[in-house]
Design goal:
Layout: E1 2-10, E2 13-19, E3 25-32, E4 39-42, E5 46-49, E6 55-58, E7 64-68, E8 71-75, E9 81-86, E10 93-98, E11 104-108, E12 126-130, E13 137-142, E14 152-154, E15 157-161, E16 165-171, E17 176-184, E18 198-200, E19 203-207, E20 231-236, E21 242-246, E22 260-262, E23 267-272, E24 277-283, E25 288-295, E26 303-305, E27 310-317, E28 322-329, E29 335-340, E30 352-353, E31 358-362, E32 367-371
């Protein structure tokens, strides 16, 4: 069983997305107690397909939506399946975004997976829009290139990190339209494709050198194959201007997740999982300035607490065989707390904030609740 992520629609409801592996994988949703993590209810097994971490969301109307493999599902809060839909391509669809009008946008990807290595150029990506009631496909759009990263959205603008460029697609309310916007970020010899983008402060922020994540074997440390240093990539959404900033300047970098952006304090935190470096930068309208850097084996999404300026990251302690969660100050990088999770592997998936001065940490093999006392 693999634990991918959780959603918490209320203080008393916590739902966990789980799945199996392989090319005939299935997913399911568990409701667990928000404090003890005891399983309270489990959905039926949901048709999936080729395994890659999918996604779950709580729709504004209240139901749960899951995309995993080449299937999408709508479940009610009692974990009964309302409707399921097979998606067009026999590939993994890596999660989705919810648009303001309630439609879902998802996409396939054709990159390498564990046990299934594929060389570039990968096949192109197709975006699919699903209406929320019956998951009927209402629009599709094929991009000019492949995309390995997850989608990002800002209102009706959907941003796609392609293998060479950032693309913008607009939802008109009835169809997807590709805009002329195209920001080429991959320009260096030895540089590989980017991962998920954070849309903040008029920019898209992401990390490159995402190739080789399929070689994950409990950690991403040492699996990177890029000969160019790993970069924090900043793309201005008005002009398409691109700025590359080294995380540590070393070859062999790799990531599978996005940076963290604190727009209030004008700080962005990036990392290099292949070389085990976590770094913070101050930014203004034109440039970035290094603030701090620490050796740390981080691989997953991070969590930001805007009021306190604290953020949660992780460190995989290979010598002890355990992952820790680490709380730092986003401006100074100073460590404020650290605790073992019990997971023997590095998390490369998705934590979530709780509602009781706590958070939930998913690391595929385990789910942990961490609280402040």
């Amino acid at each position: 069983m693999v634990v991918t992520m959780v959603v918490m629609p209320s203080p008393d409801d916590l739902f966990v997305l789980c799945h199996t592996g392989g090319d005939d994988a299935v997913s399911w949703v568990e409701q667990v107690h928000p404090e003890t993590l005891e399983t309270l209810a489990t959905s039926d097994k949901l048709p999936g397909g080729r395994a890659w971490p999918g996604g779950i969301a709580v729709h504004p109307k209240g139901d749960l939506y899951v995309v995993f493999g080449n299937h999408a599902h709508r479940l009610n809060r009692q974990l009964q399946t309302v409707v399921s839909r097979e998606l067009p391509r026999l590939r993994p669809y890596n999660s989705f975004v919810l648009l303001p009008d309630g439609h879902l946008v998802t996409k396939d990807f054709s990159g390498s997976r564990p046990g299934n290595e594929v060389a570039e150029p990968f096949d192109s990506t197709e975006l699919v829009v699903l209406e929320p009631d019956n998951l009927r496909i209402v629009s599709t759009l094929e991009l000019p290139e492949a995309s390995i990263a997850r989608l990002s959205a800002d209102d009706d603008d959907v941003y796609v990190i392609g293998t060479t460029a950032l693309w913008r697609v607009r939802w008109t309310g009835s169809a997807l339209e590709q805009e002329a916007f195209r920001a080429q970020y991959r320009n260096l010899e030895g540089q590989t494709f980017g991962w998920d983008a954070v849309i903040a402060d008029g920019c898209a922020w992401f990390l490159d050198n995402g190739e080789s994540t399929h070689k994950f074997a409990g950690t991403l440390r040492g699996v990177g194959t890029a000969t160019a240093p790993l970069h924090l990539v900043r793309v201005w959404l008005d002009s398409g201007r691109v700025l590359l900033t080294d995380i540590c300047g070393e070859p062999g970098g790799v990531v599978a997740n996005p940076p963290l952006v604190d727009a209030q304090r004008k700080v962005v935190v990036g990392f290099d999982s292949g070389n085990g470096v976590l770094a913070g930068f101050r930014y203004d309208d034109e440039s970035l300035t290094p603030l701090w850097s620490h050796p740390q084996n981080h691989g997953s999404h991070m969590l930001l607490y805007p009021e306190s300026g604290e953020f949660v990251s992780a460190h995989h302690d290979a010598e002890r065989g355990v992952e820790q969660v680490v709380v730092r100050d986003v401006v100074t990088g100073r460590e404020k707390a650290r605790v073992d999770t019990g997971s023997p592997i590095q998390s490369v998936v998705f934590p979530a904030c709780g509602m009781r001065r706590d958070f939930y940490w998913c690391s595929m093999l385990s789910l942990n609740r961490v609280s402040v006392q």
